Amino acid sequence: MKHTETQSETQYEKHYNILQNICYYFGYYRRSIPVFLWLCLAEIVFGAIQPMLSIYLPKLVVDLVVKGVTRQRMWLTLGVFGLLLLSIQVVETVSAQGKYHLYNTKRNDVLANLFLKSLRIPYRYVEEGAAKDLYWKAMGVVNRGDWSASYKMTYGAIDIIKNVISFVLYSTVLSFLSPWMMVMLLVLSMIQYAISLAKIKYMDRFREEDAELNKKMSYVFYNALGNRAAAKDVRIFGMSEWLNKEKDFLLDSSRRLEKRKGMADYRYWQLGSLLTLARDIFAYAYLLKQVFDGAVGPGEFVLYFGAITGFAGFLGSIMDSLAQLRSGTRDTNFYRAYMELPEEELHRGSRHISELEQPVSIEFCDVSFSYDNSGEKKIFDHFNLKISAGEKLALVGVNGAGKTTFVKLLCGMYDPDEGSILIGGVNRNEFPKAELFQLFSAVFQETFLLPVTVAENLTFESDYDSGRAWRALKDAGLEEKFREKGITMDTFFDKDIDENGVELSGGETQRFLLARALYKDAPVLVLDEPTAALDPIAESEIYDSYARYTGGKTAIFISHRLASTRFSNRIVLLGEGGILEEGSHQELMDLKGVYAEMFEVQSRYYARDRLEKEVF
Question: Cα–Cα distance between 460 and 470 in angstroms, integer?
């Protein structure tokens, strides 16, 4: 589905506010780790009490000295008070550390939930540009350590509650000094709050520019300069100098952007600092006047002095927490938008594939399909094709003819805009998709080998059949080579994970994917240009291996080259949204149409006797 940028943003945009997103995270913690909330409560309560007791400690010392109490009483009083203060601080620290440990555990779970969600959404979201962008934005929300939105929302909420309580307690202390003094401090604080909000809004202007620059830097530094697969291209095509220029340009752009942000931040900091200085000078002048007038004693002077100093600090912390929450809310909305995408209904359907006779037939009945759902640019327009049970069909055509789209429709990745697809004479929508996927063993052009063990890559089962797995490797022509190299079912793929890991050649990879398909042993074998990166001779050998094990199965071989045709009962040539030609290889050659022309063009690259012997 195609969208303009504005439409894409509107389609997935969420407008949850700060409070809703705070409740979202803490609701998750309440359901998964209830003790986390108790630790947060302990941190808030004891974290708010501790600063209050801290400003009373100097007052207590001064009062004891002024009163001339005995040394023993002074040490006893200070000891009890200090022990109380230390106990509160220990409880707050333990609560904070325990909370952080649990938070990190759950942050990984949130990240896992995002990945698992990507496996449950309809396939169209996987391919759609806007939805893919949303996934990576959502991934950044929980995958930036302590810069993650989950951290900002969780810790920002706790800090702001703690600081607001401390702010209120300090305000209560200052209100005993003078109500008008309290009003003046609050007014100046609100002005400072307005300045902080103006700063946040102004700094938001850099957000899109910063994101775009980070995306480019990430591509250059990780996809180009840090990508081992790109190393050969970089050397052969002399890209080093160009990439270094791009790197220098991006770094220079980043420095200039940071300088602009820094200058803006400095201007607001200066304004806020001047306001804070004016407020403190006024407050201290008033406090000193009260001391000279005899209205405030030495102990109260120390108490009020500490309260005024802490008052400004708590206000600054509240501003920082609000900035964290605003930033975290924007990012959290990406995460929630992705998590609220509709999920594929894998188990809806009243029929079961066990009802089908094997092998199965497949029929496309008056199928129309376009990726943008507008019907203006149709890949298929009232397309009809029947594949008989057990038939081996070759689907050929130039790039863009719709071969891969055919596979996506066939396997249930997409639904037709019009028409229906029958499996064994039954509309495939009557089968649960979870069962429908079991009908197909597919090998695609894009290889998919995970950095896990051979067994896991081959079977995707924790309790697999070892004998069956080795038979699949033998039938695919890999068993002997694996045993010679000492590769076992427990050997890992990818040397980045294990220095003794397996690294296969292109042909070996295709044979391994064949082994995977053979192990699954599904009724329908689909090969979607899996050998496009190989030369036609190697491609022919791979297809020869596939053809040997398709007995009793319905098989669809798809290629823009013609190596698969000799194994097929029928050849279908796609183009212009439908079928251009169909028949056996000889029938299509006798027709002297598009297929024959494609065959002749491809045959020029090889000697005729070599071509007849090795390919056709």
Answer: 14
